[in-house]
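Continuing the series of single-chain predictions for the mutant panel. This is the parent chain; the variants come on the following pages.
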Amino acid sequence: MAAAAGLACLLSFLLALSPCSSSPPPRSTYIVHVAGSHKPRAFATHFEWYASAINSVTASTLDEPDGNRIVYSYDTAFHGFAATLGESEAELLGRVPGVLAVLPETVYDLHTTRSPEFLGIGPEVISNGVWSSGLADHDVVVGVLDTGIWPENPSFADAALPPVPARWKGACEVGGNFTRSHCNKKIVGARVFYQGYEASAGSIDEKAEFKSPRDQDGHGTHTAATVAGSSVPGASLFGYAQGTARGMAPRARVAVYKVCWSGGCFSSDILAAVDRAVADGVDVLSISLGGGVSGYQRDSLSIAAFGAMEKGVFVACSAGNAGPEPISLTNVSPWIATVGASTMDRDFPASVKLGSGVEFSGVSLYGRRQNLSPSLTYPLVFLGGGNSSSLDSRSLCIEGSLDPLVVAGKIVLCHRGVSPRVQKGQVVKDAGGVGMILANTVVNGEELIADSHLLPAVAVGQKTGEAIKNYIRTAARPTASLTFQGTKVGIRPSPVVAAFSSRGPNILTLEVLKPDMVAPGVNILAAWSGVASPTSLAVDRRRVGFNILSGTSMSCPHVGGVAALLKAKHPEWSPAAIKSALMTTAYLHDNTYAPLKDSSTGEPSTSYDHGAGHIQPAKAVDPGLVYDITADDYFEFLCTQNLTPLQLRVFNKHRPDRRCRHALSSAGDLNYPAISGVFRRRPAGTLTLRRVVTNVGPATSTYNAKVTAFKGADVNVEPETLRFQRRNQKLSFKISFRTTSPQPSPEFGALTWSDGVHKVRSPIALIWLQ
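Parent structure:
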C-alpha cells in the first residue's frame, strides 16, 4: 500500500496535477504598477482585471481563487496592486499587457518645547500678523505615515478646535485598544495598514503590539505631535526641556496612517497608506521613512508621491541618518521635499571632571542625577585598544563584552557605534559599572546627542574622548566624576548641520540638488507613547508623556507642519510653490553670524549638506518670487532620465495620454529652486540653464540679480533685471556658466534676486565630471 501511494504521488508530481507533490516555490510580495486605462471592457472593475491577470500566471490551476493573492489594490495616487507571487510568476506577470512594472516589496526604516520659537513661529506670531489671514489653519489636514498615535497624550487635545471640515473623507478604524472615540477634532483620521507586512513577515503578534492605530513604539506619536501638536504647558522629560510643548501647526488636523510594525515598514503598506490619504483629502504628508535609492521608476514611494503631488498634496520626507557619508540620501525625487537635520540653540550640558583636575563638556538626559555624587570621584576604565579607528567589542561596550570583575564600581569609557547608545549604558550597568562616558568616533566628530540613559552617563565629542583615553593610559589611578546641569538655551553656534544627517549629491540626478533644506532634528521634545520607555529598551520600566529624540525623522515633521501653515496662508499655492518658498528664504548663517557648520568636521557646511539652508518660516510666508513646477514639468524632467515609454507610464495615473514633449533640453532645466550645473563633457565649455519665476509679492516690483563668483567658471545672468507689472506674472531668465578652469571638486555659490525687500536665493553647485 505504501509503495502504491508513493508511486501515485510521484506520478502526480510529474503531471503537476496533485498537491501531494513537493511544496510550491516560495512567494514574496510584489508591487505591480499598471496602466489603468488599459483595463479590458470585459472586467467591471480594476480589481477583477488584476485578479484575472494573477490567475493567468499562477503555477497551478488548483491554486487559490482569483484575487486571493492580492494584498492591496491602489486606485488614487496611482493604479496598481500588491500581490504574493513566486519569482517566475512575477516575471510572467511583467509581460501581461497593461502591466508597467513589477517591483519586489521593500522594507523601509524609521529614519517640541523650543523648536517653534527657534523657527520664529511662537503662538503670538501665528495668532497675529502675516499668518492670521487666508484659509483657516484648522481646515488643513496633515497625514502622518508612521507607527501610529497615542491619542490620550494632551498634545492631541481638541478643546479649542471647531468641527472637522466637511470635505474630510477619512475614517477612524478600530482595533486593539483603539475605538472611534479616540479620534476627535484634532485626530481626524486613524487607519492601519498591515496586509503587506503579514504577507511577508507573518501574522502580527497582538500580545506584543497593537493591531490598531495605537502606537506602542512612540515614533509616530512624536512625529505627529511635532507636526501639529496642541499646546501643552509644563511639558518636559525628567525636568529637561521644561516649557510649553507645541507643534509647528498647532491648529491643523492630524490623520494617522500606521504603516510600521515591529518588523519594519513595508512598501506595499506605505503605498496603500499614501493612496488612501490622498483619497481621504490630506493637504500635507509627513513621511519620516526611508529605503534604498533606485531609479525613479523603481521607487514605489517616489511613484506614489508623484501621484499625491499631482493631486495637490505637499510631501515631506526625511533625508536619512546615514551621514556624514556623501551620497547617502534617500527620498531624492524632485517632487518630494527632502529634509536634513540640524541643531537648535538648546542643549543639556553635563561635564566630566578627571582626577587630574581637567574638566570636559558633554551632554546628557540622565534622569536620576542624585545617584552619582558630583563631589566624589570614581575609578575610570577603558577596555578597548588604542585609537578610535581600531574599535573592538569591548571599546564599543557590546553586550557580553565587559568583564564585571574589571568594570564593577567604575565609570567606563565606551565608543559610539554599532549598537544603540542607550544600550551601551545598560551593558555597563549590567556589568556593575556606576557610570559611562560615551565618546564619539571620527565619523561623528564633535556632534553631541543627549540620551536618557539608565545610569549616569555623559556623551562627549571625539577629541574629548581621545583626551580622556590618553589620561586613562598615563595616569596611575585614573578617576573621574560626572555632573549634570539641566537645560541651557542660547547655545552658540546654532544651528549646526547634524553629523548623522544624510548628504548629497543626488545619486540619481546630479542636476537636482539634494537635500532641499534642513530643519531642527537634534534633541527634539515631543509627545510619546504611554507604553514605551524613553530609551525603548525592554529593561527600561520608566514611562513618560514626552520624549527627546534626534534624527531626520524629527526634522521632516517640522517642514510638514510649516508647509501646513503656508497652505493655510496660501491655499492656491502648489506643492512646488510651497517648497520654493521654504528653500529660497532659507538662511545660511548661525547665531554667531558665521556660515552654517558641519557638526562632523566643525567646518562650514555645503549645499550637499544643508541644501538651500535652514528653513525660516516667517520669511517663507512672503517669499516675493517662487519657482513653480507642474506635474507636466516633472514628467518632462523624467523624460530626460533615459526611461522607456513603459517606465514613464507609471507616472501617468491621472494623465494616461501624457507623452514626452521634450520641453527640457536637459534635467538641469527643470524649474527647480536650486541650480546644479553639471559639466559632463571634456573639454568643458559653456552651460546654460533656464528658469521661470512667478511674482507672488507686490504687483509692481523690480528684482535685480546677484550671483556668486566661482573659482572655476564665469557666470552670466540674462536678463539681470526682472520687472513685474502684476501679481502671478511669470518671467524667465537664463544663467550661463563658462568654464575657465575645471575644478576637481564641486564649487558652491548662489543666485539671489532682490527687490530691496525680498531676497530670493537659489543655491548653486557646479560639478566637473572627470
